[in-house]
Design a protein that fits this description.
heterodimer, B: 50% helix
Chain lengths: 175, 618
């Protein structure tokens, strides 16, 4: 009888051992730095929503937001950008329902009030608007970047919003 | 049986194990450290029954095959309880309680004295070999081997007592199973023979067949699992005497304590001499009177310590764990006998016992606290890294301020694999805090190169945590702001091709990372640091694809001699580097092979596969 019990116990152990191991790792709190602004903002990330200062609508498909004709973000300059400058990058899509009626749109940006060259788009598709930003504009803890389209789709009966671009990511890349 | 007798009987069996649990309580709270992580990771590395068998029986860790104590123990407990050491320790403690019960039964049977059995259990419980053997999960092989040896010996005694064949068979079964716990099980036949020779001579010949499996095991083991070297290289001759004294003085505690705190030399020597004299005097005196049990206890110690004496470079705290059982048997019996002697002898015996217990208790306490403290540092590191990984998913984690102790107990066995943290490194310059032990591993494998750290920090792909006494502290911004600008252009001399932070050093030909390696097509390029001195060599470790038979490397425009490789096999190639590449700003490498193959549905041309490429400077 005792032998049988032992064999059953052994078999139970081996069966349990054969199961997928449970991941059971305790964590210990770490001492974190004070929260800082992100230098790159994924518009669908609710944790950085406060950095989308104006001109953005709600998150859609957990991936992007519609912008209005003018929209503004607050970004942290990347490390060393005060010495080397940085690259401003806006990843967006220009869907057919926008470019169709508008024919073309011109996108421009200003960084801390200094204008960067505009770019014109006249076909539907996915784009990245990239501009060099000189070091002198990257001082301080935060940089305000304002984007403007020369044209946007005005509110209509089907959508009460003014629609500009489908924006997924905006941020500075280090040089 | 009167109530008093019943109480005494219950106390006889319950007090010693409970006292042991109380005395070694800290062992239950000790966390994983060192080799534990290698065994825990090993527990995750099989996916079918065949791989399970390989995981359980394949020789590992300096050529050991210990299926019960190292393999199945870790596999079962890790798969059930995860990274929680308490169930492991409870199991080890239960094993130890069983050992103590067996020791009580054996000594009572050998001597007929409950006092002798109690004294033996007390002497063994406080022995300085116990704290680490019970607190360090990887040392579970010691208590488990003790269980097999004591179990087999118990059944031998039962057989000698009753003549019943079933006890003889049980002895054999337990003895044979003991080979799965620890290699020292081969000593059991010597113990059985020595006992019968000294105390039950007519059974001596009957024990000789026990040597056959031990001899066979030794031969097979030396063929299939030879010692791999390093600290486990054996040295025979005079140095073994020094090792013997080290173990003897540690078993008697005073020598061990002297390695922890400053003690006057005369005190240590005097205490060891006193205990040795007391024990040897007792052994000789009893042998003169025809009682050879204390002599058997002494031989038990000698037999079980002898196999580790040639490991002169590897004196380990818990190695006398099994041998000290013999001394406990001898001393327990001598102390019980002393009770019937005149006052002077009783006093002398009491003084020797008190000296042993005093030194042992103090040393064992310190040893347990040392192990506990080290393990808690590892726990804070591992659990802090887990939190950092949760807070910063996908980022490289750099750990700063890791000292010697923490590195060799909490890094070297890659514990972070258990957390699925793939990219964790020490900050550049960490090697300054860590004394190298090449026999244990290479610190440099864990240190992120300066240039890679710079890129990762500036692109905000890395976070930096500093090890502080209570917890990890995120110092990413401070660290990144203080990073020396010259790091920006520093190239690494060691390239980990599975680290995405090092992508910028690779040409566009390389395929995507796959776990810990990366394939290249027929030709690929990369950049790394040029050697600073003449005499450097290039070291390539990788595997050849199914159609690759050669490796051609060009460095700085100089073509190195072509090397043949075997298709579908791993290779480890080294080239001496030409002096012309020394001192250059960077070394540009081109690696070429002669053939590629393509996996259906994958489509990529696969030539060679690499993990690490490095330039080694002498």
């Amino acid at each position: 009888m005792r032998t049988k019990i032992l064999l059953v116990a052994l078999a139970a152990c081996l069966v349990l051992a054969g199961c997928r191991s449970r991941k059971k790792v305790q964590v210990q709190a770490t001492e974190e730095e004070a929260p800082t602004l992100a230098s790159t903002v994924h518009t669908a990330d609710p944790r950085v929503a406060a950095q989308l200062l104006s001109g953005f609508y709600g998150i859609e498909d957990n991936a992007w937001r519609w912008s209005a004709g003018k929209f503004t973000v607050l970004l942290r300059p990347p490390r060393m950008s005060a010495q080397k400058g940085a690259i401003l990058a806006l990843k967006f899509a220009l869907p057919e329902p926008i470019i169709g009626p508008l024919k073309s749109v011109s996108l421009s940006a200003t960084v801390n009030g200094t204008a960067l060259p505009a770019e014109t788009f006249n076909k539907a598709g996915e784009y990245t608007y990239q501009r060099d930003v000189p070091p002198n504009l990257m001082a301080g803890e935060a940089v305000k970047v304002e984007f403007a389209l020369d044209k946007a789709l005005p509110p209509s009966s089907s959508d009460q919003r003014e629609l500009g671009l489908v924006v997924s990511v905006v941020g500075f890349e280090p040089k | 049986m009167t109530p008093r007798e019943r109480l005494l009987r219950a106390g006889f069996w319950t007090v010693p194990p409970l006292a042991a649990v109380w005395f070694h309580w800290l062992a239950l709270k000790t966390w994983f450290l060192g080799d534990d992580f290698a065994w825990l990771i090993h527990s995750t590395e099989f996916y079918n029954f065949h791989e399970f068998l390989v995981a359980v029986f394949k020789p590992m860790a300096q050529g050991t095959i210990r299926p019960w104590s190292d393999r199945i123990f870790f596999i079962v407990f890790y798969r059930i309880f995860g990274l929680d050491p308490l169930p492991f320790h409870i199991w080890a403690m239960l094993t130890q309680c069983a050992n103590i019960l067996l020791l009580l039964a054996i000594v009572r049977r050998l001597t007929g004295s409950r006092l002798a059995a109690w004294m033996a259990a007390l002497i063994w419980t406080v022995n300085t070999s116990q704290p680490i053997a019970l607190a360090w999960t990887s040392a579970y092989n010691e208590p488990l081997c003790a269980l097999f040896i004591l179990g087999a010996f118990h059944f031998l005694l039962r057989y000698l007592e009753t003549g019943q064949r079933r006890y003889w068979i049980w002895q054999w079964v337990i003895y044979l199973l003991g080979f799965g716990a620890l290699e020292l099980n081969v000593i059991y036949p010597a113990l059985a023979s020595a006992y019968t020779l000294l105390c039950a001579r007519k059974y001596f010949v009957r024990t000789l067949p026990l040597f056959a499996p031990a001899v066979l095991y030794t031969i097979v083991h030396s063929v299939v699992a030879p010692t791999t070297g390093g600290a486990y290289v054996m040295h025979f001759g005079a140095p073994m005497l020094k090792t013997f004294y080290a173990y003897w003085s540690r078993t008697l505690a005073a020598g061990f304590l002297a390695s922890m705190i400053r003690l006057p030399g005369w005190q240590v020597t005097g205490a060891i001499a006193l205990m040795t004299l007391g024990l040897m005097g007792g052994v000789l005196c009893r042998a003169w009177k025809g009682d050879r049990l204390p002599l058997f206890g002494l031989l038990w110690f000698l037999f079980l310590i002898a196999p580790v004496l040639p490991l002169t470079g590897h004196v380990v705290e818990y190695y006398p764990f099994l041998g000290s059982l013999g001394l406990a048997i001898a001393a327990g019996w001598l102390l019980a006998l002393a009770r019937r002697q005149p006052l002077g002898w009783r006093l002398a015996a009491a003084i020797v016992a008190l000296v042993y217990i005093g030194y042992s208790v103090d040393t064992s306490r310190r040893s347990a606290q040392w192990e506990y403290r080290r393990s808690q540092r590892v726990r804070r590191l591992i659990q802090g890294v887990q939190r950092a990984h949760e807070l910063h998913p996908g980022k490289i984690i750099l750990i700063d301020n890791v000292d010697e102790e923490l590195f060799w107990t909490g890094f070297i066995d890659h514990p972070f694999k258990l957390l699925d943290v793939d990219y964790l490194y020490l900050t550049p310059g960490s090697d300054r805090l860590i004394i190298p032990h090449p026999e244990l591993g290479d610190v440099n494998e864990f240190i992120i190169p300066q240039g890679v750290a710079w890129k990762a920090l500036m692109k905000e792909k890395a976070v930096v945590y500093r090890v502080e006494p209570e917890r990890l502290r995120n110092i990413t911004n401070i660290y990144a702001n203080a990073a020396p600008p010259q790091w920006e252009n520093a190239k690494p001399s060691r390239l980990d091709l599975s680290n995405p932070a090092e992508d910028y050093l690779l040409g566009p030909e390389w395929h995507e990372i796959e776990v810990n390696h990366r394939w290249m097509p027929r030709r690929a390029t990369l950049e790394m640091a040029a050697p600073r001195r003449a005499g450097a060599s290039l070291h390539l470790v990788g595997g050849a694809g199914k159609s690759a038979t050669q490796v051609v490397v060009t460095i700085g425009g100089i073509r190195l001699p072509e090397r043949k490789v075997t298709s579908d096999k791993e290779f480890d190639l080294t080239w001496p580097l030409p002096d012309a590449v020394v001192g250059k700003a960077a070394a540009e490498l081109t690696i070429e092979t002669d053939g590629t193959f393509t996996v259906p549905l994958d489509g990529r041309p696969l030539g060679l596969v690499f993990g690490v490429i490095e330039i080694i400077e002498r």
